[in-house]
Amino acid sequence: MRREELRNLCRAVESGETRLVQNEDLFYTGRVTACHGDQLTVEAFGHSFEWDSGHCREVDERVDSLGPPSNE
Asked: Is the dihedral of CA 67, 11, 18, 64 positive or negative?
């Protein structure tokens, strides 16, 4: 994610908008709940994760994400 995209995403989240990102390494998608530096706090599968914004891209609800990780 480019610096300008990150700034716009964080402003939107801080103003209460729902924004989704996909982790390009894991292919998991989650809702951004906070930004700090280059890190995004993302809620996915009922858990909170810290993802590096450089490995994320903003997506909309139509994206087909992978399901939660499992031990099966």
From this structure: negative
> Which residue would you say has higher pLDDT here, 27 or 62?
27
Tokens, residue 71: 């031990």
**Rg value, the chain, Cα:** 12
User: What's the pTM value of the predicted model, to 2 decimals?
Assistant: 0.83
Distance between CA atoms of 44 and 62, rounded to whole angstroms? 16
Three-class SS of 39-70: EEEEEECCEEEEEEHHHEEEECCCCCCCCCCC
Whether residue 9 contacts residue 19, with contact meaning beta carbons closer than 8 Å, is answered with yes
Angle of CA points 40, 10, 28, to nearest 5°:
40
* pLDDT of residue 32 exceeding 90: yes
